[in-house]
């Protein structure tokens, strides 16, 4: 990477880091572009070289936080070779993410119900940019539970399950609705197991 490119990446990262800190401290609505550039120690014009608006920063951060949670969960599952099958691994990954968010409700509030998955077209187009998602998709596609399903069908199923889990996680941990997260986990995991069971 050239020095110029390195400096660009550094400024972009500084803006994202500043925005993330402020969003967690104050909330997105109470954070302005000026607040972000002031915290990042860059001019306001610099912000617009990297992001169209505050919403674009929010999307980038949602992607970054989601990726980190998923990556941490996948690293954790690799430490448990005793898990009997793909479905057990998926339940473990979901449980790991839920527990991480239970421990850090500021991050859960930031994510709300939005766990950002790169689109299937992005994964296909960007073999180097999305190594984690490509690896996961390969694992999922090779599992007996997903046999006979197309890449798109698998992606849709996993995305739907992930979105459902995030919504339940948010409501249960922060609002206790429809019940506590401990009461909801068996329900969630039963739905996941059924959704991933091989079609007959």
Which percent range describes the beta-strand content? under 5%
Alpha-carbon Rg, integer = 19 Å
Task: Assign the CATH topology of the largest domain.
Answer: Tetracycline Repressor, domain 2
CATH class category of the largest domain: Mainly Alpha
Unreliable residue stretches: none
User: What is the chain-wise order of helices and strands?
Assistant: HHHHHHHHHH
Number of strands: 0
Number of helical regions? 10
The N- and C-terminal alpha carbons lie at a distance of 51 Å
- CATH architectural group of the largest domain: Orthogonal Bundle
- Outline the biggest β-sheet: none
Structural class: mainly alpha
Keywords: DNA-binding
Protein name: TetR family transcriptional regulator
GO molecular function, one term: transcription cis-regulatory region binding
Domain HTH tetR-type: 9-69
Task: Report on the architecture of this protein.
It is a single chain. The protein has two domains: 51 residues, Arc Repressor Mutant, subunit A (Orthogonal Bundle), CATH 1.10.10.60; 138 residues, Orthogonal Bundle (Tetracycline Repressor, domain 2), CATH 1.10.357. Helix content is 74%, strand content 0%. It contains ten helices and no strands. Helix 5 runs parallel beside helix 9. The chain is globular and about 55 Å long. One of its GO terms (molecular function) is transcription cis-regulatory region binding. Pfam families: TetR_N.
């Amino acid at each position: 990477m050239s020095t110029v490119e390195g400096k660009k990446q550094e400024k972009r990262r500084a803006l994202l880091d500043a925005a993330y800190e402020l969003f967690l401290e104050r909330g997105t609505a109470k954070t302005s572009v000026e607040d972000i550039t002031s915290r990042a120690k860059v001019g306001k014009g610099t912000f617009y070289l990297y992001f169209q608006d505050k919403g674009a920063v929010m999307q980038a951060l949602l992607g970054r936080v989601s990726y980190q949670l998923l990556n941490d969960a996948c690293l954790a599952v690799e430490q448990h070779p005793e898990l009997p099958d793909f479905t057990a691994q998926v339940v473990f990954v979901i449980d790991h993410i839920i527990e991480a968010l239970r421990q850090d409700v500021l991050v859960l509030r930031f994510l709300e119900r939005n766990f950002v998955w790169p689109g299937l077209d992005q994964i296909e187009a960007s073999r180097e940019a999305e190594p984690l998602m490509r690896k996961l998709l390969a694992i999922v596609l090779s599992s007996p539970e997903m046999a006979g399903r197309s890449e798109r069908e698998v992606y849709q199923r996993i995305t739907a399950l992930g979105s459902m889990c995030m919504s339940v996680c948010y409501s249960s941990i922060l609002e206790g609705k429809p019940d506590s997260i401990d009461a909801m986990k068996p329900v969630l995991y039963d739905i996941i197991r059924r959704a991933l069971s091989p079609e007959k």
